[in-house]
Amino acid sequence: MRSVYIEELGQHVGSEVLIQGWLYNKRSSGKVRFVLVRDGTGLVQGVVTPTADPAAFALADSLPQEASLRMGGTVRAEPRAPGGFEVTVTHLEPVHIPTAPFPIGLKEHGPGFLMDHRHLWIRSRRQTPILRLRDAVLWAIRSFFHERRFVATEAPVLVGTAVEGTTTLFPLDYFGTPAYLSQSGQLYLEATCAALGKVYWIGPVFRAEKSKTRRHLTEFWMAEAEQAFLDHEGNLALQEDLVRYVVESVVAERPRDLDELERDSSLLRREVAEPFARVTYHEAVALVQAAGVAMEVGDDFGAPAEDALSQHFGRPVFVERFPAAIKPFYMKRDPGRPDLALCADLIAPEGYGEIIGGSQRVDREEELLAQLREAGLPEEPYRWYLDLRRWGAVPHSGFGLGVERTVQWIAGIPHIREAIPFPRTLDRLYP
Prior knowledge:
β17 and β18 (about 355-360) form a beta hairpin. Strands 7-11-12-19-18-17-14-13 form an eight-stranded mixed sheet. Strands 2-3-4-6-5 form a five-stranded mixed β-barrel. It has a three-stranded antiparallel sheet with strand order 8-10-9, with no helix packed on it. By secondary structure, it is an alpha+beta fold. Helices cover about 30% and strands about 30% of the residues. The chain folds into two domains: about 1-95, CATH 2.40.50.140; about 120-420, BirA Bifunctional Protein, domain 2, CATH 3.30.930.
């Protein structure tokens, strides 16, 4: 028998195959046993009868949930079965039989219990499609940048300088020197962009925010990009192209996973079909206030404000030109309104919040020095960053896309903790 993956069964109808996986569930109907097997690519139902293989029939009665096994038989189309195919079993061989009942039964469990058993919960019928969608999102991001001739690079996780202030940093001792877990790779991407022109990286970042919302993690993954000779308008166009590319790629590549999650892929297509909406910060505040959400000019957008904008537009919306006073020191000011920064946040539809933050960067030494001082930050730790403005400075822009929030939106899941294999939150460091 040829060993195949469950997602390939459509290519082997009428043929004998070998499936290697784990027992997800089983049931009986008279003299027929049905075993539901998963292998990481999907689920398939095996039909076991005493006439086909008496030993397999007896074994099907005794195998517990999550026993690993090899199952051989003939593939046939069956629209009523999970995945649309089933296997008429002629061979069933255990690889490992658990010695205790699997802790996560096929019933409802509380989120605390499931998070304590996250290492086992990721095997479930709901979690595996989410993690496959995450993989598709990451591949789509890389494919987009590769097609645009961006160079993949890296940024350090251990850093000595803050990107967005010191209040949300995780400090650590680096052989006697104060250091931090990085909030963003942006400053280092600006350096590599001056060497390579167009660069990106995908990696973990850390924010020590004491937030317990469904949109926050303390460790998450960012896809960040920087491009030389790119202004604010070009930056927004690049972000819009990326998000549309990612959504369309995932919808085309993983329709079965979206169906498994009961996610409306036609809605996702419609949300990115038209040009994204665009409003200024001040226009957005007025819209939020009109929706009855408390917010004042000078406030950043919280979840209720983002939800109001999301509901108003029904598609992704850029909120641009924030007050410079509430944004990081590295953002270039609007020449016509020096109190505003040339920046934007991209808010996803359906209440999934901000998925991208980006800006045109300060490209002149004197401007950067002035804005460092205005932010009350010391010059010495940023000496290398200032060097980028002393030799060959050019207009440049970049952004960071939150991978988990993007997965959360595309998968249509209510809480960000399901969008990453092992989430780290304010009260979660296990497993």
